[in-house]
């Protein structure tokens, strides 16, 4: 079985590569990644020489490259994880989000249609549903899309495009929409790594607005197991929500991390709120639980402490990311001329 995975040098993508190589000893994994700021080949240095893993440096929106890859390797499965995903960056400049999240998805859908792949997994986000009030029921797969940011609007557009390819062309597309992830290798500008790394450096921890914005959190390895089940067993044309039923306010989550690290709460610093900041996300995962038998493997508290300890034990990794030194790893490993 040959799987083409996009965005495999990012946070979720690199965890998914590690997971798949262990879970499927008869699969060959091809990882296409543009290596923008969030792509870090150091995340995959322990599998760089693996006989069933192949890295390809390139843009998912590059139609010529993508067509050549599909023609040369005859992929059975596609998992599209590549995306610009940082809300604040999308507010400052939406153009890269249109190129990667919409144009890139269209290029891949066309290539997959021409070459008859068995399954196309479009990895999306709960942010396409918009915001919930504190007393509202969780998002269902049938919840209307109502994105709030340029990022979530670009992902909603890609989802609609993927469903249209299923209905128009019969392409076996499945879509996953997941809640907020946390775990190893997450880019340090994201919320949980920002808290951990700032606290470890005894720097202030920025909290948007009043800190009461609520998110549903899932450990990245649980997300990877869910993606595997959807890719192999999900019904074409269907959407599957992935959530761990672990809602936490930003303020409570920050306080939990401070307690784990035995640091004072006076490190918390409230800053001006983000424009269009969604108040609450919550995911109802009953469909994937019933159809595919998925459940989170461990408790939130256990996984959060595991995540904090990973950042404590891997300080050189996130320090290289924050300094920009991590980008030199790709040049050393794959050759200066490719970058």
Task: Kindly describe this structure.
The chain is an alpha/beta fold and 339 residues long. It has twelve helices and twelve strands. The strands form three sheets. The chain has a seven-stranded parallel sheet with strand order 3-2-1-4-5-6-10, with helices on both faces. α1 packs across α7 (220-233) and α4 (95-115) runs parallel beside α5. The radius of gyration is 19 Å and the shape is globular. The two termini are 30 Å apart.
Shape: globular
Q: What is the overall number of helices? A: 12
Q: Can you tell me the CATH class? A: Alpha Beta
The CATH topology corresponds to: Rossmann fold
Quaternary status:
single chain
Number of domains: 1
Strand order of the largest sheet: 3-2-1-4-5-6-10
Stretches with pLDDT under 50, minimum 5 residues: none
Which value, in Å, is the CA radius of gyration?
19 Å
Structural class: alpha/beta
Order of helices and strands: EHEEHEHHEHEEHEEHEEHEHHHH
The pLDDT mean sits at 94
Organism: Desulfotomaculum copahuensis
Cofactor: NAD(+)
Domain NAD(P)-binding: 4-306
Keywords: Lyase, NAD
Name the descriptors.
about 15% strand; about 350 residues; 3-stranded mixed sheet; 7-stranded parallel sheet; single chain; 12 helices; alpha/beta; Rossmann fold
Give the SSE layout:
Blueprint (H helix, E strand, L loop, with lengths): L1 E5 L4 H13 L4 E6 L19 E5 L5 H11 L3 E4 L6 H6 L2 H21 L3 E7 L24 H20 L3 E6 L1 E3 L8 H10 L4 E4 L5 E6 H14 L5 E4 L4 E3 H11 L7 E4 L14 H7 L7 H14 L1 H9 L3 H8 L5
Parallel strand pairs: 1-2, 1-4, 2-3, 4-5, 5-6, 6-10, 7-9, 8-12
Antiparallel strand pairs: 9-11
Helix pairs in contact: 1-7, 2-4, 4-5, 6-8
GO molecular function, one term: dTDP-glucose 4,6-dehydratase activity
Protein name: dTDP-glucose 4,6-dehydratase
Organism: Desulfotomaculum copahuensis
